[in-house]
Structure formats: C-alpha cells, structure tokens
Amino acid sequence: MTNPIATTIDDLPDAEALLSRSGLEFMQAVLRGELSGPPIGETLGFRLTGVEDGQVTFDGAPAFAAANPMRGLHGGWYGAILDSCMACAVMTRVPRGAYYTTLEYKVNITRAIPLGTLVRATGTVQHSGRSTGIAMGEIRGVDDDRLYATGSTTCLIMQAK
Q1: What mean pLDDT is predicted for residues 21-34?
Q2: What count of Cα atoms within 13 Å lies in the side-chain half-sphere of residue 61?
Q3: Checking DSSP bridges between strand 132-141 and strand 119-128, what pairing results, if any?
Q4: Phi/psi of residue 2, nearest 5 degrees
Q5: What is the separation of C-alpha 117 from the centre of its chain, rounded to a whole number of angstroms?
Q6: Most buried among 8, 39, 76, 87, by the most CB within 10 A?
Q7: Residue 140 has what pLDDT?
Q8: Which whole number is the average pLDDT over 11-38?
Q9: Which pLDDT does position 18 carry in this prediction?
Q10: Cβ neighbours of residue 30 under 8 Å, at least 6 residues apart?
Q11: Dihedral of the alpha carbons of 156, 84, 68, 114, in degrees to the nearest 10
Q12: pLDDT for 103-119, tens place per residue?
C-alpha cells in the first residue's frame, strides 16, 4: 500500500476533502492513497499503516537524522509518532463537517529505540465526545514487541461553520 506524500501545500487535502467526510472516511482515504499524507512522516521516517474506528497505527524506523548529541534518538521523534497515532485515532471518531487539533500530549519513554529499529506506534481512543477526544498510545518493536514508549493526548473537536 503506497501513501502519496504531499510535497507542496497544494498537495495537502483541502477543506472540502476534509469536511465532506467523516474523520474515519478521511483517514481511510489517506491510507488507501486517495488523499496525500502530510510530509512530516516522510521527514521523520514513519508512515500510516492501519486505520480502524478508534485506532490508528504508524510504522517507522528512526534514522541518524533524528539522533541527539548523545548519539541516541531525540525525544521529539517519540513525540511526533505518538502525537500522530493518538490524534489520528481521535480523528477516526470526528463526525462529517468537523475537524480536530491536539490540545496537549504526554510521552513516557521506557527505553531507547536504537536507530534503524522498526517500531509500530498504535493510538487508541479512550473517549470521544462532542468537543473533546482522549487517546492513549504506545510504541512497540515490530520484531520483538518490546515497549519503548507510551503516551496520552487530549484533542479538541470543532464544528466547521
């Protein structure tokens, strides 16, 4: 499954593409490659790999470009992939004509991800209401199922006017 990645702002889905679908339909269209995905995943080495009602997965392997001065993986990489999977999981519960944004998220790193290690980040909705969504996430090794990090998020759900 190939997800086209936007290379310019005009490649990103417009408001009509977003608001004419439910969040689940939107995320499924990105997964199927009918809508371009954002460039952040390509920049950081992860991609959308699964979409279900209330759950989204991203797979990726951090590259040297995400290293910190201590030769380890920068904490921002954990945050970016967790924010993506958790917020997109909330997106699957957003109704047609609405959109969301991350209000806050928290990351707990349990062990260092070695550069080049393939991991899967899974976000799962815990609550979705009219104006807020809450999700949890975790990063696990694809080959060994080791837990590398967990996270939580609160997202605002807004109606387009």
Answers
A1: 96
A2: 7
A3: antiparallel
A4: -105, 125
A5: 18
A6: 87
A7: 98
A8: 95
A9: 92
A10: 3, 13, 36, 37, 48, 51
A11: 140
A12: 999 999 999 999 999 99
Rounded average pLDDT over 96-100: 96
Which positions ≥6 away from 109 have C-beta within 8 Å? 75, 78, 148, 149
Token output for 21 = 């679908």
Tokens representing residue 102 in the block: 């991350």
pLDDT at 2: 64
- pTM value is 0.95
Q: Kindly write down the DSSP assignment for every residue of the chain, as one continuous string.
A: ----B-SSGGGS--HHHHHTS-HHHHHHHHHHTSSPBPTHHHHHTEEEEEEETTEEEEEE---GGGB-TTSSB-HHHHHHHHHHHHHHHHHTTPPTTEEEEEEEEEEEE-SPPPTT--EEEEEEEEEE-SSEEEEEEEEEETTT--EEEEEEEEEEEEE--
Indicate if the alpha-carbon torsion angle 75, 77, 83, 89 is positive or negative: negative
